Each structure stands twice: as structure tokens, then as C-alpha cells.
Amino acid sequence: MEFGFHPTEYNCIGLADFKGLLVDGDDTTVRLAKAVLPKRIEARQSFITLDNIDSLGTHFPQLGVLSVDVDGNDYWFLKALLPARPAVVVVEYNASFGLNPVTVPYEPAFDRMAKHDSGWYHGASITALTKLCKTHGYKLVAVSAAGGNVFFLPEASNMPQLDPAHAYRESTLRNRWSGTTAKEQWGQIKHMPFVDAAS
To answer: Which of 54, 60, 75, 146 could make an SS bond with 124 (beta carbons 3.0 to 4.6 A apart)?
Structure first.
């Protein structure tokens, strides 16, 4: 189950022979997905909020992979979905936040470009997401090479646990197109409202 996707780029795209639900708020994305993806993968247009995410989270009786990448309320949606006990959790972290244990406050109609011209104010840090997952019995096991996604498995997994302070990577794509570093990005958005996930 993926929240936030494109038919040519989503985290489960490399998996074979699975049933899936892809959810996105963009109608054009969903129409394209319905035209090109196999019938075993359902694409649904829905602007996700905490009011409707519970019904989506119970779509499958057993959830293999949960992926959250919505460029906004990622932390709050993940928090609502973790009780479904997915086997694998994938979530986008905001590298611009560095290791600060923060997330943006929940807002039903969150739009990152409307919030800050840079588009860098959204989601949550790797530290905040790791702490959240730990409270639900998951551990950090991998970080994508480009510094965009983190992967969590149940604590009983044999894979070694990573420390976010050592596993953190800056976003190579964001740094490249903006000509800035994560530290410089944080400098431009640190005055914005945040929720401290460490408290």
C-alpha cells in the first residue's frame, strides 16, 4: 500500500506478483495509473486526511509493505497506520531538517509550496520518524542512497539496527537542483512552525 505515487516511480514498482493499493490526491496521476498498471494494482484518487486514512489502512487484512510519501503530513499518516502492523515500512524523510527531531504540524489541506516558496517545509526528519517507529516496535534498517526514504522492519528482524545519526544522508537531488546543502536549506525554514517529536 502506497500513499503518494507516480505510475512510473513508486517504491513497490520492483516487486512482482503482489496485490497493491496506490493512493494519490492527483486525479491525472491516478487516471494514468489505471491505464498502464496491471489490474492487480488498484489506483485510487483520494486526498488523504486523518479522517479517512483509517478506512484506507484496513484495505488489506495483512499488510506487506506500507509506503508513505505525500510531501506533507507523512509523520501523522504513518502514526495512524502503524497499528496495522505492516511487515515493511517505507517513508520519505525530509533531509532538509537534518537530525532535528521535528515534523510539520498536522494540517488537513497541507500544501508544501503554499507553506514556503522553497518547497522544503514538509514531512519529518529521519530522527522523528525513527523515534515514532520505535514506539511501535520497528527499527531503522536502511536509508536510500539518494537520501530520500527510510526503511523500517519489526524489531525481531535479523537485520541490524541503524542509528539515524550515522545513517542520515542529505538529499542528493535536492542539493543538486537547488545548489544548496541541507544545512543551508534548514537555515531558510527553521523559523517555521514545528512539532518536536522528541518530547
So the answer is: 75
pLDDT at position 17 is: 80
pLDDT band at 28 (very low <50, low <70, confident <90, very high): very high
- What is the rounded CA–CA span in Å between residue 58 and residue 23? 13
DSSP state of 179: T
Helices (H), the chain: 27-36, 53-57, 74-81, 112-115, 126-135, 164-167, 172-178, 182-189
Give CA angle at 19 (9, 75), nearest 5°.
Answer: 55
pLDDT at 101 over 90: yes
**Number of other residues whose CB lies within 10 A of the CB of residue 86:** 23
| Rounded Cα gap, residues 116 and 135, in angstroms | 31
For residue 40, which amino acid is it? Answer: R
Whether 28 and 56 have beta carbons less than 8 Å apart is answered as: no
If you average pLDDT over residues 18-33, what whole number do you get?
92
pTM, rounded to two decimals: 0.94
Closest CA to 173 of 143, 146, 144, 151: 146
Cell of 13: 514498482
